[in-house]
# Entry
Amino acid sequence: MKRRTFLQHSLGGLAGLALPVSALAYHNNSFQSHAYSRKPFALPPLDEGKWVNGKRVFNLTLQKGESKILDDTTTETIGINQAFLAPVLRFQKGDTVKMQVTNKLEEEAALHWHGMILPASEDGGPHQAMKPGKKWVAEWKVLNEPATYFYHSHTHNHTGEQVWKGLAGQMQIVDESQDKALNLPHEYGIDDYPIIIQDRQFEESGEFFYSNQRMHKMNGMHGDTILVNGAINSELKPGTTSVRLRLHNGSNARFYDLVFSDQRAFNIIGTDGGLLEKPITINRIRLAPAERAEIIVDLSDRKPLTLVNLRGYGNVSDSRNMTVMHFNSTQSKKVKPFKIQPLVTLPNWSDVAIAQTRPMNLEMHMGPQMMFTSGGFTINGEAMDMDVINEELKANTFEIWELKNNSDMLHPFHVHNTQFKILDKNGIQPHPWEQGLKDTVTVHDNEVVRILFPTGPYQNSEVPYMYHCHILEHEDAGMMGQFTTT
# Structure
């Protein structure tokens, strides 16, 4: 593959390059189906749990509700401890967390802790689904590094629809002493903000539109309206002029190509599984469904600013750029801009023994199987079967997986119970901002991506973890497999 083609395929392959003015021409409500009034930034409630017998305990209730997302009507939604979406859960590495989950929905639901390294029985995959009215308790010691994670529905064949309706939220593992030592913004709602970006489509009645028809299944569900933390066209008035934004692609299927309206540069400090070794200065970043990136933005010039999603990236090509959210720093406390410096030392896996190298071929079948059934998507020729264990891994080892995309669409590939490193894409080393710890990586059409990861310390020959495409409609349609670690 030529270098130019590879650059166009990477997560932030266009980041840092000069953008023509025409690329940023947009309207405040571009490609959105209604004109929405500007709303205050929706800061999710923060839940840090309660200490009980040396454990950090969270009480989470899956529930139905009504939410005023649109200006002039309400929408039936589901959420966690609230009508729509969920509180941000915050805890620390080394904590023992206990998640007490009650399902008050009228349907079966599973709640998965995305990105966590934990026993398979606590993972919250489809095998841990709760019937209506039932409780489930997950407990584990936090081994992950400080980073931005999330939790969401993982109900077999119904993940896409439940997340679309609101069954998802952000988790943060934090280390305030480390953040202070590195001079990183870390005060929730003052200089440190969750930015959960989702798209939705609405019926004329104001209800969510969700479809399992062939085209929506093939492309994944896309909406014409962008939400941040559940609000449309919102404006953040940050507490300070140096802010940490925990960007989180919470969409079912939409890929984002994000840039600020004045093309200003920002510093990316972390990816899915933790901080980078040093900040990378870029002005454009691409996020696939489930990917996260922590960035620091300097707003000391106090100019009005808009975060924009550029058209043309992903499996559906929008006709216009889309407004994500606005920033108003006129009243923000002026602080010193973030100073570029080394952050952390990432683990060196260059000399580890590789227990096994596994091919993972991502496939789409365009014939009757997709048109007339719920399937059409496979990995290594097999569609998801709850009764089939596709792979068996050995605990406390390292593996390389070769992800090959045999379809003509982009697929964000996610592996449970680990944080991996991207070794290369079509034999070319990843960019610096792709060299942190990851749990999701985009595999482009006709691309081979190699990832290296530790299999983790937990053993269970009966209960599996998942690996799958994180376009949720692809996952529901069969592009998912199961593995045990023994």
Q: What stands out?
A: The mean pLDDT is 92. The chain has three domains: 3-35+181-327, 39-174, 354-485.
